[in-house]
Amino acid sequence: MADEVFDLVDAEGRVIGHASRAQCHADPSLLHQAVHLFVFHPDGRLFLQKRSMTKRIQPGRWDTSVGGHVGLGEPAHRALLREAREELGLQRIEPDFLHSYIWRSEVESELVRTYRCTHRGPFELQSDEIDEGRFFTLPEVRALVGTGQLTPNLEHELGLLGILDPPGARTAAQR
What's the rounded mean pLDDT across residues 24-38? Predict the structure, then answer.
């Protein structure tokens, strides 16, 4: 099977070149695009997926509900809908855009666009990508932070979403 090719982008998301998945995952100077989706149950619980133990990056750790790369020439929103369908079997969702940011690690750099939606399931997990998935209460998610059970990227995003700083948790000195 041929290696996937991704658009390389600048910090604003403008395409400046192309590179293979293998190149992007071996050279952190190659900024490429990814999409993340946070799926919340109507009761406020958050669905997380546990990355397959066969994944090269962060195997066996809990991660965003859906996450994947944007394909060559593919609009980010379309990539998000494709990934949601492939990973969780989600059809006809209307995700809301939350934010974008650049995530850098020792192996790659991604311009991540993050979305959210509400869905109660059931889900059809993509078995070669996901070992398990389930809804967590927000206190359960917070309890996993710093234990090594979550991907570092997920921990970063939980901060961006305000999940790590529950209302009333900050001291007067922090306000």
Answer: 97
